[in-house]
Amino acid sequence: MILIMGGAFQGKEEAARRMAAAGENGEKREVISRFHERVREYLHAHPEAGEEKIRAFAAETAESCPTAVITMDEVGCGVVPMDREERRYREAAGWAGQELAARAETVWRMLAGIPMRIK
């Protein structure tokens, strides 16, 4: 699995499409875009979920899609929201990102369309 993280509109989706098309042995990889939004949806469906369940959700995705290219916005940067649910979402996205990064074969950070390999 490949994880591409970065701020909004930094070129993650285009990089994911390129990496997916250049899969090993000519096999195209699946692209899972905007994983941070899947975390938000998971929180809405499971309002009691804590760190353990969020990490398990991310781990399940990594295990079920071992060759995927996953994109995820960095949502923890910037001003801390006053809204409690938004702060909870940021924490959950952070836990999910950590889990995916730990399981990924490579991790990229996108900034201004420039990919930087960090793992």
Automatic annotation (TrEMBL):
<dbReference type="GO" id="GO:0005525">
    <property type="term" value="F:GTP binding"/>
</dbReference>
<dbReference type="Pfam" id="PF02283">
    <property type="entry name" value="CobU"/>
</dbReference>
<dbReference type="InterPro" id="IPR003203">
    <property type="entry name" value="CobU/CobP"/>
</dbReference>
<dbReference type="GO" id="GO:0043752">
    <property type="term" value="F:adenosylcobinamide kinase activity"/>
</dbReference>
<keyword id="KW-0547">Nucleotide-binding</keyword>
<keyword id="KW-0548">Nucleotidyltransferase</keyword>
<dbReference type="GO" id="GO:0009236">
    <property type="term" value="P:cobalamin biosynthetic process"/>
</dbReference>
<dbReference type="InterPro" id="IPR027417">
    <property type="entry name" value="P-loop_NTPase"/>
</dbReference>
<keyword id="KW-0067">ATP-binding</keyword>
<comment type="pathway">
    <text>Cofactor biosynthesis; adenosylcobalamin biosynthesis; adenosylcobalamin from cob(II)yrinate a,c-diamide: step 6/7.</text>
</comment>
<keyword id="KW-0342">GTP-binding</keyword>
<dbReference type="GO" id="GO:0008820">
    <property type="term" value="F:cobinamide phosphate guanylyltransferase activity"/>
</dbReference>
<comment type="function">
    <text>Catalyzes ATP-dependent phosphorylation of adenosylcobinamide and addition of GMP to adenosylcobinamide phosphate.</text>
</comment>
<comment type="similarity">
    <text>Belongs to the CobU/CobP family.</text>
</comment>
<keyword id="KW-0418">Kinase</keyword>
<keyword id="KW-0169">Cobalamin biosynthesis</keyword>
<protein>
    <recommendedName>
        <fullName>Adenosylcobinamide kinase</fullName>
        <ecNumber>2.7.1.156</ecNumber>
        <ecNumber>2.7.7.62</ecNumber>
    </recommendedName>
</protein>
<comment type="pathway">
    <text>Cofactor biosynthesis; adenosylcobalamin biosynthesis; adenosylcobalamin from cob(II)yrinate a,c-diamide: step 5/7.</text>
</comment>
<dbReference type="GO" id="GO:0005524">
    <property type="term" value="F:ATP binding"/>
</dbReference>
<keyword id="KW-0808">Transferase</keyword>
